[in-house]
């Protein structure tokens, strides 16, 4: 005898499955708590970057932009390097908007990667400026990840006109609160500049 299941029940089951991250056999360690969506708290974040030519701040001067952002983390895949290093990865999407006009001015896609055996975390990401970074550090609820020599790749144009010389970030995860600060060393407009970003986020779902 055929058993009919109400369409409503099927829809509820599918929706529930869609909300549950599927990563059988993968241990994300301290990164597990990141899975989901995060949004800036009301105070938001601050970006300090080199101002563009003809901007109010003046070419190459510090331009301060208050912002808010949305970050989403989800299980991605696992991989083995050189037959020995086993890694699991969370994919993440970061979209940052200026408070002044709600315009998105930073879009970042990447992976947070966990090496359980060596207790290391890697942040491997690219931004649509023809630049990519790999930063690494010891795993934990509070982590400092730094780009090692060779951990920064960029276009020939950027290498000549806006070279990234260093990258470091600190992540601090406590319950449903996430804070980060990062420093990007630049060689731009014939001088050094430290590009700084920081924000506090809360779990949205």
Record keyword descriptors for this entry:
single chain; 205 residues; Lipocalin; 11 strands; 9% helix; 60% strand
Describe this structure in words.
About 10% of the residues lie in helices and about 60% in strands. With about 200 residues, the chain is mainly beta. The chain has one domain (about 25-205): Beta Barrel (Lipocalin). The longest helix has 13 residues, at about 5-20.
In terms of topology, how is this protein built?
Blueprint (H helix, E strand, L loop, with lengths): L6 H13 L16 E5 L4 E6 L11 E20 L3 E14 L5 E12 L4 E8 L3 E8 L3 E13 L1 H6 E13 L2 E12 L2 E13 L2
Antiparallel strand pairs: 1-3, 1-11, 2-3, 2-11, 3-4, 4-5, 5-6, 6-7, 7-8, 8-9, 9-10, 10-11
State the gist of this model:
The protein is globular. Strands 1, 2, 3, 4, 5, 6, 7, 8, 9, 10 and 11 form an eleven-stranded antiparallel sheet that branches. It has one domain (25-203): Calycin beta-barrel core domain (Lipocalin), CATH 2.40.128.20.
Strand-pairing-aware structural class? mainly beta
Percent of residues in beta strands?
A: over 45%
CATH top level label: Mainly Beta
CATH homology superfamily: Calycin beta-barrel core domain
What's the CATH architecture? Beta Barrel
CATH topology: Lipocalin
């Amino acid at each position: 005898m055929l058993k009919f299941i109400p369409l409503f029940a099927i829809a509820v089951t599918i929706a529930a499955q869609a909300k549950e991250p599927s990563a059988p056999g993968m241990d994300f360690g301290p990164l597990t708590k990141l899975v989901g969506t995060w949004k800036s708290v009301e105070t938001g974040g601050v970006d300090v970057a080199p101002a563009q030519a003809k901007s109010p701040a003046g070419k190459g001067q510090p331009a301060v932009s208050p912002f808010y952002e949305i970050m989403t983390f989800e299980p991605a895949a696992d991989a083995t390097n050189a037959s020995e290093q086993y890694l699991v990865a969370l994919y993440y999407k970061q979209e940052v908007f200026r408070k002044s006009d709600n315009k998105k001015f930073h879009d970042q896609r990447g992976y947070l990667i966990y090496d359980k055996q060596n207790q290391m975390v890697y942040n491997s990401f690219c931004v649509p400026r023809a630049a990519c970074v790999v930063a690494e550090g010891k795993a934990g609820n509070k982590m400092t990840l730094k780009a090692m020599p060779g951990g920064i790749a960029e276009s020939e144009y950027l290498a000549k006109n806006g070279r990234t010389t260093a990258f470091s970030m600190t992540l601090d995860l406590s319950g449903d609160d996430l804070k980060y600060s990062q420093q990007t060393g630049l060689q731009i407009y014939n001088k050094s500049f430290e590009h700084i970003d920081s924000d506090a986020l809360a779990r949205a779902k």
